[in-house]
Amino acid sequence: MSLPHAILTALLEKPSSGLELTRRFDRSIGYFWSATHQQIYRELGKLEKAGLIRALDRDVPTRGQKKEYEVLPSGREELERWVGVREDPRDPRDPLLLRLRATGVVGVGGDMVDELRRHRALHQERLAEYREFERRDAARGNGTERDRVHRLVLQGGIDLELFWVTWLDRALADLEDTG
Amino acid sequence: MSLPHAILTALLEKPSSGLELTRRFDRSIGYFWSATHQQIYRELGKLEKAGLIRALDRDVPTRGQKKEYEVLPSGREELERWVGVREDPRDPRDPLLLRLRATGVVGVGGDMVDELRRHRALHQERLAEYREFERRDAARGNGTERDRVHRLVLQGGIDLELFWVTWLDRALADLEDTG
DNA sequence: GAAAACATGTAAAAAGTTACATGATTTT
DNA sequence: AAAATCATGTAACTTTTTACATGTTTTC
Fold it and tell me: Residues with Cβ < 8 Å from A18, sequence gap 6 or more?
């Protein structure tokens, strides 16, 4: 049950429309949580119905017209409750390592090496992007708790991509060696 | 669509019953893919129906009685096809970083620091466990491709836990500093 | 013979993915 | 006026989670 809380957090940081939220999920929030626009619109509908958020301005919302939402006090309370909840780390699920392991029983082919290289490039790209965000952030202030938390989370994104690039390098070195 | 392929891989490595598979998913396969017994039994049923695996021995399967499965040729072919598929890295989804970010807008309390410490301990535990597996593996042979792939995947599990412990240490240092 | 451990399942709900539909606004 | 982009949504499906149900074998 994290999506509604991700949306509440994003809306508290800045009231937004569904599409704007989708874009923010592709950027900063996306370091650790992703969502499609379909998920977001559905969830916005639920949150509005539950009285946790409300649409601004629009009395007569028509299709195709921008609709901005803001968080209501009950929404903020719900988020405050949720941050105090204990939840264990989630089980990892990564198809790439599964595929690699499967090659151990059905045989490889150079295909898997290509695929690992491709993934390495993708992670490298994302890493570069995050480092660019970091560079930009360094210019801005870092006084508030919010800024520090943002920085920590971005650092998490960077470290995670670094993990991937490093592990993929090792895997490629190993497989190219004798593969 | 990875669960059926995870099961096919596990069954090729060694024919097993549903409960045995569940245990193996909690151990080695669990480095990067998890599944509950409910998921596994349902999927075994589907795979059997699709003719990719078959139950051994049992002609009259009754509830509560062990049922072992093995992979049929068509199952192996399906797995061979699947390892060649290109699939982009999956979007990360981690509620902990989401909760941390939420504290940036609703305020922290020492609660989050406690929660980060708790997660650090859990990751540290798992890391120790994986290193124990690594130690044991080192004794065994490493000649076959299968052994090498297993070792790479285990290394991935270790590196991922190391990422968490390192990042959590950094986060704790930062938050305790001024928190 | 009671309890614990082993073993297989069903059902319902929640979350996520994929495909499709449609209207409004801006640019060329 | 056509095309591109902005914007919101529906529907069907798949996957995952949670709660429950039940039978068998081993151990004390």
Answer: A37, A40, A41, A44, A67
